[in-house]
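Late entry, evening session. Most of the bench is empty. Finally got around to the prediction I had been postponing all week. Sequence below, unchanged from the version circulated by S.P.
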Amino acid sequence: MDILVNSHTSFGNDGNHLNLAINDGANGAVADSVANALHAAADHLPVFADFVVGIVNSVATPGLASTFRLRQNYPNPFNPATSIRYELTKSSSVVLQVFDLLGREVRLLVNEAKPAGLHGVKWDGLNDAGLSVSSGLYLYRIVSQNQVVIRKMVLMR
C-alpha cells in the first residue's frame, strides 16, 4: 500500500520507533509526556493511522458483520477525539454511551435503530451539555441485540 504525504495522522508512534522504545528520542507523533506515558503502559505499541478520506459520522456496510462486536476505540489514549466502531449481525436498536468511573453517563453517542453491518461514531471528549470532560479513564457501553459490551478508554488532555 502506498501512503500519500499528508493523507494520514499517526497516533502514538511516528513510524521511526519500530525497533526502539516509543520514548527513545524525539517522537514526531506525540509530545514527550504522552510518549513516556505510552511507554509506561506498554513498550511495544502498534502504529495507528487515521486516514483522511472525508467526514463520516456513521458508516453502515451491510453483510460484513459475522458477529456482534464492539471494537476498541482508536486512538487510545486520545486527545481530542476518538473513533468507536461496532458491528451488527442484523438490524437492531443500538444504545452507545460513555460513562465516568462512578457510573455516571457522560455522553449518549447513539440511540437509534441501525442496519446490519459495520458502524462508527466519533467522541469529541465533550459531555451531553457540550462541555469538555477532564482527562481520565472512561467506559463506553453498547446495548444491542440482547447483549451488553463495555470497554475502557483514556482521555489525555
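Two things to note before I forget:
The CA atoms of residues 135 and 156 lie 5 Å apart.
Helices lie at 32-41.
Will write this up properly tomorrow.
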